[in-house]
Amino acid sequence: MEAKLRTENISKVFPGAGPGRPSVRALEGIDIEAADGQFVSIVGPSGGGKSTLFNILAGLIEPTSGRVYLDGHPAEQLLGRLGYMPQKDLLMPWRSVLDNTTLGLEISGVPRRNARKRALEDFPRFGLTGFENGWPASLSGGMRQRAALLRTFLVGREVMLLDEPFGALDALTRQEMQAWLLEIWHADRKTILFVTHDVEEAVFLSDRVYVLSGRPGRVVLQVDVDIERPRPLSVTTAPQFIELKRQLLEPLLQRMSPAETT
Amino acid sequence: MRIARASVERVILPLALAAAILGGWQLYVALSGINEILLPPPSKVAAALWSDRSLLATDAWVTIREIVYGYLIAVAFGVALATLIHSSRLIERALYPWLVVSQMIPIPAVAPIFVLWTGFDIRPKLMVIALVCFFPIVVNTIDGLRAVDTELLDLLRTLGASRVQRFRLARVPAALPFIFSGLKVSAAFSVLGAVFGEWVGANSGLGYEILVLNNQSATSDMFAVIVLLSVIGIGMFALVASLERLMLPWYYEARRERRDTPRRVVLPQGEAA
């Protein structure tokens, strides 16, 4: 079966900022793929080019070399093709929660009434009921992320890029949000690419995990997670889960203590 | 309860201070025997305000009209100029230095030239007021248009937003609090501009009245005019500030929320309280 999204040998070099400054190799030869409806995570150290990869996939920057394939076809123009949820929720403080979620629909020309109607249908399962007319400032961190995710969802792209959406949440909220995200994903079966630096989060959520090295970012490991779904929270203590975590952590830890690698 | 007490404090305290100063002033004039032409007591100023009320009302109306029109010209011109400067790097490079230079012009000195050009009607006053008022508006609007989070602009691009949509949906709303800062500063300056404008050539208005009263050494009446001018300035400011509250409810909501929530200890990621 043809992959929904596939990258071929993507590299990115940022030119040095000013004369005499060295250029920065952010990504090197990235090959990843996600089948339709798959949940794929990318873990790696901070500064390892994960966000650069997402910016390329979102069409915000061009790769220095390499290609992105959507449904088997090379994608020339990626801007607006994939749903993109950046690290910060970027909710507009001057729009109500409801109007924030309809932003993408509004931009694509859906009349405001229809956009609102569609958004409101999803408010209950995104846990935002009762906050439709509030300002984003009145939402908790978890709710802000859910509102941002709904904004991305409503645009209706088949592939969604989620860049560390739970990175700033406390541990408990984070677990709740992970379980909730799986529910949403089960219901809609979108293809999700998920960036995180948390290996446990990656294993819990994903069908496949790619491990990126530090700069320049390369894929150093690819692991398929064959734990059956739905996954209860207790799965995180199962031997199979712990073994996967160990496998994924190995290349990351090696990097941190170079003395042991010799 | 707490809110009620806070607002009582906000009203009572400044009024009490004003009463104390006015009382001290009155007492000083009475006790020191100072010539009342040099420093009339507040009671005389109040009496002048009352006895001259119909004349002062006519003059005040003239000045208020100048201020409102001049201010509106400054707002339109200032926002348009800022948008133009923001739209192109080249225009910014060419225009911005001259914008600053325009503020180095001593306005009382050029005002007579405006009179020369346009005569004694309302026009030279409008020009002076606009010249005084437009600068804070332009500068703040430019800063505001730049203040938007670039990541938000990126997000809008991934949602397919055009340049115009990004401007309308993100830049303008993010700029509004800045624009209103400029508008408030300018509102406070507008009275100054009107007085300058009238000093160089007018036959009515509160600024003109100051000159006439000064020649007559009618000090308590001059103070009365100053009181009126201040009230007009306060009114302008209050008007713009209320408009801001009306138009930016989200801004005040967020500010209030920040004030009300106790400060949080920032912990490393994932452990935030």
Written account of the structure:
- The complex is a heterodimer of chains A (262) and B (273).
- Chain A has 262 residues and is α/β, with parallel strands linked by helices.
- Chain A has a domain at 90-156.
- Chain A is 34% helix and 22% strand.
- Chain A contains 9 helices and 11 strands.
- Chain A has helices spanning 50-57, 97-101, 103-107, 112-122, 141-154, 171-188, 199-205, 239-256, 258-261, and strands at residues 5-14, 24-30, 33-34, 39-43, 65-70, 73-74, 83-85, 159-163, 191-196, 208-212, 219-224.
- Chain A has a 6-stranded mixed beta sheet with strand order 7-8-9-4-10-11, with helices on both faces. In chain A, strands 1, 2, 3, 5 and 6 form a 5-stranded antiparallel beta sheet that branches.
- In chain A, strand 8 (159-163), helix 6 (171-188) and strand 9 (191-196) form a beta-alpha-beta unit.
- Chain A starts with a strand and ends with a helix.
- In chain A, 39% of the residues are buried.
- The model of chain A has no long low-confidence stretch (mean pLDDT 90).
- Chain B is mostly helical.
- Chain B folds into 2 domains: 1-34; 37-251, MetI-like fold.
- Chain B is 82% helix and 0% strand.
- Chain B has 11 helices and no strands.
- In chain B, helix 3 runs antiparallel to helix 8, helix 3 crosses helix 10 and helix 8 (163-199) packs antiparallel against helix 10 (219-247).
- The longest helix of chain B has 37 residues, at 163-199.
- The radius of gyration of chain B is 24 Å and the shape is flat.
- Chain B starts with a helix and ends in a 13-residue tail after the last helix.
- At the A-B interface, helix 3 of A face helix 7, helix 8 and helix 11 of B.
